[in-house]
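BUG: 3D viewer hangs when loading the predicted structure for this chain

Environment: internal workstation, default settings.
Expected: structure renders.
Actual: progress bar stalls at 90%.

Input used:
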Amino acid sequence: MAKLPEAKIMEVPRRSGDYISAMGKVMDVLDHAGWSVSEAAKMLGVSTGRLVSFLRADGPLFAEMNRRRKEKGLRGLNS
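Structure tokens produced before the viewer hung:
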């Protein structure tokens, strides 16, 4: 990953045209972190709780993140 997105990426409103791009960037960081939410949060410069809150706010995004975590042998996060 060449450049990490800034923490403000998670402040993009869901109704914004930039939301899909922001979601993708957060998922890219999670992928780069091996689907470790705590590692991804460090990379984004936010708390783990803040990242989890962002993910939980979007049901399909949260479900996809959990699916990918389980593929890697990690437990899913509670919704």
